[in-house]
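Input.
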Amino acid sequence: MSSERQNALAEARVLLVGCGKMGSAMLHGWLAAGLAPANAFVVEPGPTAGVPRGVTWVFKAEELPADLRPDVVVLAVKPQMMDAAAPAFRPLVGKGALVLSVAAGKTIGAYESYFGATTPVVRAMPNTPAAVGRGASVLIANANVSQAQRQLAEQMLAAVGTVDWITDEALMHVVTAMSGGGPAYVFLLIETLAASGAKLGLPEDLAMRLARTTVSGSGELARLAPEPAAQLRQNVTSPNGTTQEALAVLMAEGGMQDLFDKAIAAAARRSVELG
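Output.
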């Protein structure tokens, strides 16, 4: 990463609206990546625990410093609460701040309606592995975003994982359904693997330990290996062996692919509704 990009976050004034699990993960990632605590401002009406030293933490917009001119306003509240929460920050956005949203479903057009049509907006969809620095984020910007603001937004999300950009906002519904909700599907896989082992006689704690380690280890192998996922699957599958028997069930008509097609489509439809 260039020194110019390294300096972007270090010198930025960041206002974070909403500091739940995702907001907290991002905040800690930004601080670790060089954001000065004195330049971090948080609005969070809920209970506070472990507030990073030096960060300004308030419960409502009216308690922020009167002279605050943030470079970026990060909206990390639930999409169902956005209509009520966002307008309070219009005066701060109007001072030239970039709006960076991580709320599912809410379109760029929604933020332009809150803050004005000329507002620079980056919409992002991260996921919960951001809490351990392994998130996957997809971003899209409107035409008002400058190159410097684009770099700042990218660096902020890169502090908690990988970053990709798209140019077709409609694809954000698919991103939300797939990688946004993806950790839940993986955790469900862990649950179901463990439950299946326990049903066949394994102690429940051993079955869960094996399931967690198998899924996390396989994920790390998939991340590091040069081969595609299909090849990695084949590497585990001996002809006429036990794994092939299981895959014959999982890959049959109506099996895993059909279920995921239906599940991701359902989540994408819900993302459209939330917008």
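The first strand starts at residue 14 and ends at 17.
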